[in-house]
Amino acid sequence: MESPNLLLLLLLLAVAAFAATGDAYGKFRHLHLYSRNSEPARSVDLHRNNSFGNILAFDNVLQEGPDPSSRVIARPQGMAVIADLTGANAFTAYTITFIAGEFNGSSLSVLGLTTMTGVSDRSIVGGTGYFRTARGYILSQNIDVGMEDYNIYITFS
């Protein structure tokens, strides 16, 4: 029979090894930006009676503040597919490319459902440059016609 002290030592070493490698994301950032929505380019219009299945492409801007003259920091570019029979939700896949400021040249990859009313909660599934290995989420909400309030929460190494 093995010594209880040896088993305890092995258990402590295993926990220490897991703790040393378990948290690869050492940095955290919260960005609060504002989106000015461009008119989406409708790529595919599948139904006359409803919008289910329609595919939209977009190229918007993210600004530092809600004022139209605020500095443009990034461009969310991608597509949305109307994924709800009522037309109230769209599945989105896009990249936020930073074009100014501290993160210029870096990007975030985003997937998730956008709701036409209420708060949209989407996942950050990767990134480039400063945000390589990024994970996180984006909460956004329409605050005015053509404008969304973006709260971006990012962890990365």
TrEMBL record:
One of its GO terms (cellular component) is apoplast. Residues 1-24 form the signal peptide. It is found in: Secreted, Extracellular space, Apoplast. It comes from the Eukaryota. InterPro entries: Dirigent. Keywords: Apoplast, Secreted, Signal. Homodimer. Dirigent proteins impart stereoselectivity on the phenoxy radical-coupling reaction, yielding optically active lignans from two molecules of coniferyl alcohol in the biosynthesis of lignans, flavonolignans, and alkaloids and thus plays a central role in plant secondary metabolism. Belongs to the plant dirigent protein family. This is Dirigent protein. It comes from Zingiber officinale.
